[in-house]
Design brief:
With 168 residues, the protein is mainly alpha-helical. 49% of the residues lie in helices and 11% in strands. The longest helix is centred in the middle third of the chain and has 22 residues.
Protein backbone atom coordinates (compact mmCIF):
# COMPACT_ATOMS: atom_id res chain seq x y z
CA UNK A 1 0.00 0.00 0.00
CA UNK A 2 2.92 2.33 0.62
CA UNK A 3 3.94 1.85 -3.03
CA UNK A 4 0.44 2.93 -4.07
CA UNK A 5 0.54 5.88 -1.68
CA UNK A 6 3.81 6.95 -3.28
CA UNK A 7 2.08 6.89 -6.69
CA UNK A 8 -0.73 9.06 -5.26
CA UNK A 9 1.88 11.45 -3.89
CA UNK A 10 3.60 11.69 -7.29
CA UNK A 11 0.28 12.29 -9.04
CA UNK A 12 -0.66 15.02 -6.53
CA UNK A 13 2.70 16.72 -6.99
CA UNK A 14 2.38 16.55 -10.79
CA UNK A 15 -1.08 18.16 -10.76
CA UNK A 16 -0.30 20.60 -7.93
CA UNK A 17 -2.79 19.02 -5.52
CA UNK A 18 -2.35 18.86 -1.76
CA UNK A 19 -3.41 16.17 0.68
CA UNK A 20 -3.02 16.87 4.39
CA UNK A 21 -1.57 13.65 5.89
CA UNK A 22 -2.24 14.89 9.44
CA UNK A 23 -5.97 15.02 8.62
CA UNK A 24 -6.01 11.76 6.68
CA UNK A 25 -7.29 8.56 8.27
CA UNK A 26 -7.15 5.09 6.76
CA UNK A 27 -9.80 2.42 7.10
CA UNK A 28 -8.56 -0.99 6.02
CA UNK A 29 -10.93 -3.71 4.84
CA UNK A 30 -9.55 -7.21 4.95
CA UNK A 31 -10.49 -10.82 5.65
CA UNK A 32 -7.30 -10.95 7.71
CA UNK A 33 -7.91 -9.96 11.36
CA UNK A 34 -4.48 -8.41 11.80
CA UNK A 35 -3.70 -4.73 11.49
CA UNK A 36 -0.68 -4.17 9.23
CA UNK A 37 2.61 -4.18 11.07
CA UNK A 38 4.11 -1.58 8.76
CA UNK A 39 2.89 2.02 8.98
CA UNK A 40 1.21 3.65 6.03
CA UNK A 41 3.23 6.68 4.97
CA UNK A 42 2.26 9.61 2.78
CA UNK A 43 4.61 12.54 2.20
CA UNK A 44 6.97 11.21 4.90
CA UNK A 45 4.19 11.28 7.52
CA UNK A 46 2.52 8.27 9.16
CA UNK A 47 -1.21 8.01 8.46
CA UNK A 48 -3.60 7.25 11.31
CA UNK A 49 -5.34 3.87 11.03
CA UNK A 50 -8.95 3.79 12.26
CA UNK A 51 -11.48 0.96 12.60
CA UNK A 52 -14.60 3.11 12.14
CA UNK A 53 -15.36 6.19 10.04
CA UNK A 54 -18.52 8.19 9.50
CA UNK A 55 -19.01 8.92 5.80
CA UNK A 56 -22.08 10.90 4.71
CA UNK A 57 -23.88 9.93 7.92
CA UNK A 58 -23.12 6.21 7.65
CA UNK A 59 -20.80 4.63 10.21
CA UNK A 60 -18.56 2.27 8.27
CA UNK A 61 -16.36 -0.14 10.21
CA UNK A 62 -13.50 -2.35 9.08
CA UNK A 63 -15.68 -5.50 9.24
CA UNK A 64 -18.57 -3.90 7.30
CA UNK A 65 -20.96 -4.98 10.08
CA UNK A 66 -22.50 -1.48 10.44
CA UNK A 67 -23.28 -2.22 14.11
CA UNK A 68 -22.55 1.32 15.27
CA UNK A 69 -24.63 2.74 12.41
CA UNK A 70 -27.61 0.53 13.32
CA UNK A 71 -27.35 1.42 17.01
CA UNK A 72 -27.20 5.13 16.19
CA UNK A 73 -30.22 4.92 13.85
CA UNK A 74 -32.19 3.04 16.51
CA UNK A 75 -31.47 5.74 19.11
CA UNK A 76 -32.32 8.54 16.66
CA UNK A 77 -35.55 6.79 15.65
CA UNK A 78 -36.68 6.32 19.27
CA UNK A 79 -35.88 9.99 19.93
CA UNK A 80 -37.93 11.08 16.90
CA UNK A 81 -40.82 8.83 17.95
CA UNK A 82 -40.69 10.28 21.45
CA UNK A 83 -40.78 13.80 20.00
CA UNK A 84 -43.75 12.84 17.86
CA UNK A 85 -45.59 11.52 20.91
CA UNK A 86 -44.83 14.67 22.91
CA UNK A 87 -45.97 16.85 20.01
CA UNK A 88 -49.25 14.97 19.70
CA UNK A 89 -49.80 14.98 23.45
CA UNK A 90 -50.07 11.22 23.71
CA UNK A 91 -52.34 11.07 20.64
CA UNK A 92 -55.27 13.06 22.06
CA UNK A 93 -57.71 13.48 19.21
CA UNK A 94 -55.43 12.00 16.54
CA UNK A 95 -56.67 9.08 14.52
CA UNK A 96 -54.69 5.88 14.19
CA UNK A 97 -54.32 6.50 10.44
CA UNK A 98 -52.92 10.01 10.97
CA UNK A 99 -50.56 8.80 13.71
CA UNK A 100 -49.14 6.08 11.45
CA UNK A 101 -48.83 8.52 8.54
CA UNK A 102 -46.82 10.85 10.76
CA UNK A 103 -44.66 7.91 11.90
CA UNK A 104 -44.03 6.87 8.28
CA UNK A 105 -43.24 10.44 7.25
CA UNK A 106 -41.06 11.50 10.20
CA UNK A 107 -39.55 8.42 11.88
CA UNK A 108 -39.30 5.76 9.18
CA UNK A 109 -36.95 7.85 6.97
CA UNK A 110 -34.48 8.02 9.86
CA UNK A 111 -34.56 4.22 10.09
CA UNK A 112 -34.15 3.87 6.32
CA UNK A 113 -31.16 6.19 5.98
CA UNK A 114 -28.21 4.37 4.48
CA UNK A 115 -30.13 1.17 3.76
CA UNK A 116 -28.71 0.93 0.24
CA UNK A 117 -25.14 1.15 1.56
CA UNK A 118 -25.69 -1.14 4.54
CA UNK A 119 -27.35 -3.93 2.56
CA UNK A 120 -24.93 -6.49 4.07
CA UNK A 121 -26.34 -5.76 7.53
CA UNK A 122 -30.05 -5.64 6.70
CA UNK A 123 -31.08 -8.46 9.06
CA UNK A 124 -29.11 -7.02 11.98
CA UNK A 125 -30.47 -3.54 11.29
CA UNK A 126 -34.02 -4.84 11.12
CA UNK A 127 -33.70 -6.62 14.47
CA UNK A 128 -32.38 -3.45 16.07
CA UNK A 129 -35.05 -1.22 14.51
CA UNK A 130 -38.11 -3.48 14.93
CA UNK A 131 -38.73 -2.28 18.53
CA UNK A 132 -39.07 1.28 17.19
CA UNK A 133 -41.80 0.28 14.75
CA UNK A 134 -43.55 -1.89 17.35
CA UNK A 135 -43.48 1.01 19.79
CA UNK A 136 -45.01 3.30 17.15
CA UNK A 137 -47.79 0.80 16.46
CA UNK A 138 -48.49 0.39 20.19
CA UNK A 139 -48.64 4.18 20.63
CA UNK A 140 -51.15 4.50 17.78
CA UNK A 141 -54.72 5.00 19.07
CA UNK A 142 -56.68 1.78 19.43
CA UNK A 143 -53.66 -0.51 19.72
CA UNK A 144 -52.79 -2.57 22.78
CA UNK A 145 -49.31 -3.65 23.82
CA UNK A 146 -50.56 -7.18 24.44
CA UNK A 147 -51.20 -7.72 20.71
CA UNK A 148 -48.63 -9.51 18.58
CA UNK A 149 -46.49 -7.53 16.17
CA UNK A 150 -48.19 -9.20 13.20
CA UNK A 151 -51.63 -8.22 14.53
CA UNK A 152 -50.43 -4.64 15.05
CA UNK A 153 -49.07 -4.52 11.48
CA UNK A 154 -52.44 -5.64 10.11
CA UNK A 155 -54.38 -3.27 12.36
CA UNK A 156 -52.24 -0.25 11.43
CA UNK A 157 -51.78 -1.23 7.77
CA UNK A 158 -48.00 -1.23 8.20
CA UNK A 159 -45.60 -3.33 6.16
CA UNK A 160 -43.32 -5.58 8.28
CA UNK A 161 -40.00 -3.81 8.74
CA UNK A 162 -37.86 -6.63 7.32
CA UNK A 163 -39.86 -6.55 4.06
CA UNK A 164 -39.85 -2.75 3.97
CA UNK A 165 -36.06 -2.58 4.42
CA UNK A 166 -35.42 -5.20 1.72
CA UNK A 167 -37.61 -3.24 -0.69
CA UNK A 168 -35.60 -0.07 0.02
Amino acid sequence: MNVDLKQVELWCNKWNMNIAPEKTETLLFSDNQQVPTQSLIYNNKVLKITTNKKILGINVDDKLSFEQHNTEKSKQSFKALSSLDRFLGKTNGVSQTLYMRLYKALVLPIMEYGTAATVTATDKATKELEPVQRSAMINAPGCLSSRSTVALEVLTNTLPLNIHMRMR
